[in-house]
Amino acid sequence: MRQNPAETLRRVLPKVREVLPVAGVEMQLTAAVSFLTILQEDSVSIHTYAHSFLQVILLHLEHRDAGVSNAWLETLLSVIEVLPKETLRHEILNPLVSKAQLSQTVQSRLVSCKILGKLTNKFDAHTIKREILPLVKSLCQDVEYEVRSCMCRQLENIAQGIGTELTKSMVLPELIELSRDEGSSVRLAAFETLVNLLDVFDTDDRSQTILPLVKSFCEKSFKADESILISLSFHLGKLCHGLYGIFTPDQHLRFLEFYKKLCTLGLQQENGHNENQIPPQVLEQEKKYISVRKNCAYNFPAMIVFVDPKNFHMELYSTFFCLCHDPEVPVRYTIAICFYEVSKLLNSGVYLIHKELITLLQDESLEVLDALIDHLPEILELMSTGGESSIQENKLSSLPDLIPALTAAEQRAAASLKWRTHEKLLQKYACLPHIISSDQIYYRFLQRMFTIMMTNNVLPVQKAASRTLCIFLRYNRKQEQRHEVIQKLIEQLGQGKSYWNRLRFLDTCEFIIEIFSKSFFCKYFFLPAIELTHDPVANVRMKLCYLLPKVKSTLKIPADKHLLQQLEMCVRKLLCQEKDKDVLAIVKRTVLELDRMEMSMDAFQKKFYEKDLLDQEKEREELLLMEMEQLEKEKQQNDGRPMSDKTFEKKRRDAKTPTTLPKSIPISVPGPSGTSTPSTSKEIKKSKLIRSQSFNNQAFHAKYGNLDKCPSKSSTAGYTPVSGLGKTSVISLTDDSFRARNASSIPTSFSPSPSLPSTSRGTGNPVDPKSSGSKDTQPRKATLKSRKSNP
C-alpha cells in the first residue's frame, strides 16, 4: 500500500478477503493492525478506504475469538473518527438497529454498545435523540448484566454528545435505575459514570438526586463486594470536590470520617498472623484493602482541599501519619508521590509534616525514596522558606534533622543495585546550597561527592556526583574551602594515577564551563585540562579532543592570546606526534572545527551579545560571593565576635527584598571618585553586606533554575552558555553606593594559591592604560575590569 496502492487494492486485497474467513488468530490480528496502520498513514483517501476496507472490518467484528473481535473493534472505532456522516449512517448506524436486538448474540450487543458510544460525537443532538437514544435505552434494560454494564459506561460519551438538557431528561433517569441494579458490576459502572458527569448537573440535581445515591452507595459499600470499595476509594476525591458546597456540616463530617476509616481499612486485622496459616480468601481480601488505602493516599491532596488546609493539623494530620507509616510499600509509595502537592497546599503549615518527610527519606524501600525525590528540591525549598515569621525559628531548628536523613538516603541508594535512583538523588542534591549553609554542605556532602567520583563504578552516577560537586563549589562562600576543592580536583582527578579519574576530570571541566564564568575556568582549569594532551592513555586524549572546542570557547581575544597560543601548541603536538589512529582521526576533525570557530572578543559582539550578558551575570555573582566573604570577615573583626552559619542563614532567609541584578549591563559607566568620608565609607560597607547577604538567596533562584536547562549542543563557537568579561570590560552596578567603592575594598578571594595554576587574563597584556594610576584615586570603573589575580 505504501509503494503501489492502486495495484495492491486491485490484486492483493481480494486475496486477503478470500483467506480471512478461514484464517487463524495470528493472521486475523495482523490484518486488523495492518488495516488500522493503512488508515493512520493516509495511504489512500477516506472514500477509497471506506469502499475497500470497511466491509471487511464489519464482517469480522463478531469473530468467535474475543481477542480478534476486540482488535477489529478497535480498528472500526478509529475508522468512525474520520468517516463522513453519510457513510456512518448507511454503513454503521442503520445495521446497528438489528445488531442491538435481543435476538442477537451477547457479543453482538456488546459491540453495539461501544459503537453507539463512539457515534454520538459524530451526529447532531436531534439525530442522536431520534435514532441513537432508543437503542441506548433498550441496551440499558438488556437482560444480560454484561450488556447493561457496558452500555452504562458509554453513557458518559453520550451525555457529552447530547448536551445538558437531554442528559438530565434522558440519561440521568437511566443512571439512577442502573445504580439500583441487582448486578454489582452494573451498580459500580453507574456510580463511576455519575462521578464523571458531576460537572454536567446543576446544584439541584446534585443535592436532590446524586447526593442521596452517593450516601447510599457509601453506606452499603462495606457490606458489598470489595471491588466496589476500591472504586469508591479511588473516586472519593473527585466526588468530594464535585459535591463541595452542598454538604451540610453533618454530611461533611460523615464523608471525612468515611475517608479516615478507609485509610486504616485492614490495619486492625494485622496482628502478627503467620502468612502461611491465613486462608487464601483472607489474603485476597487484604490485597483489596491495600488497594483501598493506596487510593486513599492518592486522594489525600483533594481531601486537604475538602477540609481546608487551615484545619489540616486537627482533621487530617493523624491520617497522614498513618499513611506515611503504612506497613505496605504501595501505600507509602503513593503518599510519597503526593508529598509535594500536600506541601504546596499546606503552605505556611508545611512545617507540620517535616517529621513525615524524614520518615519517607529513611524508608527501607527505595521505591518510596525514588518517588519522593522527584520533587525533593521544591519540597525542601518549601520546608526552609515557607511560613510566617512567628514560626520561622521552629522550621530552621528542624533542618539539622534533615541532613542525617539525606546522607543516609544517599548511602542506602549507593549500597543498592538501583543506580538510577542513586543518580537521580545526586542530581537533586544540587538544590542544597539554597537550603542549608555552605559549611554544612562542605563537611557533610562535598567529600562524599569526591568519594563517589573516585570509587563508584557506574558512569552516570559519577557524572551526577561531579555536576553536583561543581554546583556546591559554585556557591561555596569560603576562599580556603574553594581552593581546597579545586586543588583536589586537579591533583586527585586531573593528575590521578587512574586513567578513569582523569576521564572524570574532563567531565568535571565540561560542567565547570557550563556552570561557572569563562574567567573562572581559564583561571583554574584551562592549563590542567590541556596538559592531558600528553596523557599516556589514548582514551583520555580522545575525550580531551572532543572537549577542545568548548575549551576554546572560554577564551577571549586579545586578553587570552597567550592561552590560545598554548592551546594551538598542544593541538599541533597532537597532530605531529599522535600515533593512535583513532585519536589522530578525531584530532583532525577537531582541528577543522577549531578553525571554523569564531573567537569571542573582549568587547561585546552582536552575535554573542546574549551569551556575553549571561556570562557577565555569572561573573558578577562570583564577585559578589567573594565580597560577601570579605565583608563578613570585616564585620567579625569590627564586632569582635564570629558570625555563625546559623546566624547568617537566619539573616539570609529574613531578607525580604533581595537585590535584583539588572538584565542589561553597560560595558563602561564611570562612577564617582573613591575619595569619600569615613562615615560614607561605613554606610557603603553596611549596604554592601546587606546586598551580599540577600544575594546568596536571590542568585541561586536565577541560576539553579537555569542550570538544568542549559543545552549540551555546541554552537559554531563551541558550547559555552555565555561569554565573560574581557580585559577592558567594566562591571557597572545600579547601586550608587556600590559604584563608589574603591579598589582597596575588593577582596582577593580568587587569587591563586601557590599550589594552584593561575592563568589570569591580565597576564596577556602587562601594560594596560586603564589600570594605570593610584588605587586610592581611581574610580570604581578602573577597579573591577578583567578579573586580575591581585586587584
TrEMBL record:
InterPro entries linked: ARM-like, ARM-type_fold, HEAT_type_2, PPP4R4
UniProt subcellular location: Cytoplasm
Keyword Phosphoprotein: yes
GO MF assignments: protein phosphatase regulator activity
Compositional bias annotation for Basic residues: 782-791
Keywords: Coiled coil, Cytoplasm, Phosphoprotein, Repeat
UniProt-annotated stretches for the region Disordered: 632-686, 705-727, 743-791
PROSITE patterns: HEAT_REPEAT
Stretches with biased composition (Low complexity): 662-681, 744-760
GO CC aspect terms: cytosol; protein serine/threonine phosphatase complex
Biased composition annotated in UniProt, kind: Basic and acidic residues: 632-656
HEAT repeat positions: 132-170, 171-209
UniProt-listed SUPFAM superfamilies: ARM repeat
The protein's role, per its UniProt record: Putative regulatory subunit of serine/threonine-protein phosphatase 4.
Subunit annotation: Serine/threonine-protein phosphatase 4 (PP4) occurs in different assemblies of the catalytic and one or more regulatory subunits. Component of the PP4 complex PPP4C-PPP4R4.
Name of this chain's protein: Serine/threonine-protein phosphatase 4 regulatory subunit 4
Organism from which the protein derives: Zalophus californianus (California sealion)
